[in-house]
Design a protein that fits this description.
Blueprint: E1 2-5, H1 10-22, E2 27-30, H2 41-46, E3 54-56, E4 62-64, H3 66-74, H4 84-114, H5 127-145, H6 158-167, H7 181-191
Parallel strand pairs: 1-2
Antiparallel strand pairs: 1-3, 3-4
Helix pairs in contact: 1-3, 1-6, 4-5, 4-6, 5-7
Bound molecules: glutathione.
């Protein structure tokens, strides 16, 4: 398998983390999204949506969307529960991640720590609303994690991997997790799981 990725990307890191936890080896293709590497005709032929992460399977199938890739990789492993209800709960948290969490926390991090916007940039006017909606998502997580080890069924699943990716670097988007003790404990728990790799551990 080949993974097309941008090393600082949390969406890409979800896939790297799942591959590491599952012990799957792969070829890593780093791209620079700031230089437009995902908008070339060559890349658009692989993913018409022009975004990483993109996983190329041995039969040349291309899979896009980080959480869809996690779903594919987790099949038959402990990262995907057997009960249909628990499977639906894992999906519930992964959809939450894409609608309520990533668009706020990842976007604030991208603007502040990667794009390094200045107060006169148009994004700066939108930052306060990203921060308040990001904290709202963190509060939903905190309430759920209070008294639970992991998001679903008491074990690590792809719901945890999807939500860990941008939560553990939320401070790079200006978020302070001081008031989120259950979330901080969960972050430590996920990082202690066998096979864990850090976001900066790209090959
Ligand atoms: N919903 C997608 C989001 C993917 C995404 O936004 N990728 C960004 C990097 S994190 C990207 O490739 N941006 C490059 C561009 O838009 O040109 C996923 O979860 O994979």
């Amino acid at each position: 398998m080949k993974l097309y990725d941008y090393p600082p990307s949390g969406n890409g890191y979800k896939v790297r983390l799942a591959l590491a936890v599952l012990g799957i080896s792969y070829e890593y293709i780093p791209l620079d999204i700031l230089a437009g590497d995902t908008r070339t005709s060559g890349f658009l032929a692989k993913n018409a949506n022009g975004r990483i992460p993109l996983l190329q399977l041995p039969d040349q199938t291309y899979l896009a969307e980080s959480n869809a890739i996690l779903y594919y990789l987790a099949q038959g492993s402990d990262l995907w529960p057997r009960s249909i209800v628990d499977q639906a709960k894992v999906l519930q948290w992964m959809f939450f991640e894409q609608y309520s969490h990533e668009p706020n926390i990842a976007t604030a991090r991208f603007w502040i720590s990667i794009k390094k916007i200045s107060p006169s940039d148009p994004e700066a006017a939108l930052l306060a609303s990203k921060i308040s909606q990001g904290y709202a998502a963190l509060s939903v997580m905190e309430n759920h994690l209070n008294g639970r080890d992991f998001f679903v069924g008491g074990v690590l699943s792809i719901a945890d991997i999807a939500l860990y990716a941008y939560t553990h670097v939320a401070h790079e988007g200006g978020f302070d997790l001081e008031g989120y003790p259950a979330t901080r404990q969960w972050l430590r728990r996920v990082s202690a799981e066998p096979g864990h790799v850090r976001i900066e551990d790209w090959q």
